[in-house]
Here is the input.
Amino acid sequence: MKQQTSSDWIARSLRSVWHPCTQMQHHEEVPLIAVSHGKGPWLYDHEGRRYLDGISSWWVNLFGHANPRINAALKDQLDKLEHAMLAGFTHEPVIELSEKLAALTGHNLGHAFYASDGASAVEIAMKMSFHAWRNAGYPGKQEFVCLQGSYHGETIGALAVTDVPLFKDAYGPLLRASHVVPAPDARTAREGESVQDVARRAIQDVRTLFEERGDKIAAIIVEPLVQCATGMAMYDPLYLELLRKLCDEHHVHLIADEIAVGCGRTGTFFACEQAAIWPDFLCLSKGISGGYLPLSLVLSSDAIYQAFYSEDITRGFLHSHSYTGNPLACRAALATLAIFEEDDVLNRNRELATKLTIALAPLAEHERSTHFRQRGMIFAFDAVEPDPARASTFARRFFTTAVENELLLRPIGRTVYLMPPYVLDDEEVAGIAARTQKVFESVIAA
Here is the structure.
């Protein structure tokens, strides 16, 4: 039988697979990569060409592809239990994972509800918030608030609290309206303002809204510290601290979407820890399974859980899907948490982040870059591209050039960002920085 080449696989994929977040016609010019296998921070195609995965395969991969410890855990679980419904049944992996996550929050968030993807977790948190208020005798609290430029997923509920026109505008007639408040993006600092000043200024708009509509608002949802899909907009933890106080004062739930920023990405396991606060709901997905299997969950406070605890079935939270709490996905998550503990990952990441920041210094100081920023293991800068036509194609040109240089980076507009796995060695740190600079200079000079 003839061995299939990358070109063969690509042709078959383009005929049969509708790829996500993609205008398919662009693949007439933009390369599609047929991945054969992965190892550590590298992905390989069928001809053996390799690509350094600088974005952790859409922010999910924490400890490298084909990680031996996660592989071993999954192989062991396969021989025990692949799946069982979680309604009326339970199993060891989901129990142990729930217990460990509750412990990581200091038992402030002690109840885990499971789903498969990030948008589903956001939908669950929104439904829980609305339903909890109704159960508590406040059925009028039905409105939601999000930050300018926010992204929380592309299902109908999650899209309603997303403020990215590219994703949202086409489906506007299907969506419930939400309130949008200014983001505390540090890049918006006025002359003489500190990042804390930006946070205080942004929180005033929330205060005004809560004073006017607090009796109608169920919850506000935020990505703590970094708004990823809007271009890695970073802000000071003070905003979260002030927001928690406002939510308490006006009886509004706080939903923390840590789908992208949790699991150590910002330097602490949960981003909210840096503000010394806990939300009413915390959404996790992406990295929680180490990038192996679809898994998401919502951690909620005991007060939320008790709002549903009743003999009346209509007061229960009846949301479900068939693969809730899948044992394989939960076992991958347990293996992921074990690596965090056994390898002292958060402390190691601080050292790794320092090395990457130093290696990226030439880009931070480059005359055609601006707003270099870093939070934990997330790095970003904005390209200075005065020509609107060139600016509109910057991301595609950068991605194509990066692939030619064995590098997987996928800019958001003019924002170049790196969110690599936590397993880079010194040679790979130097390599990813040097290749990013080479690609950037090539693209802006072309």
In short: The first helix runs from residue 6 to 16. The mean pLDDT is 96.
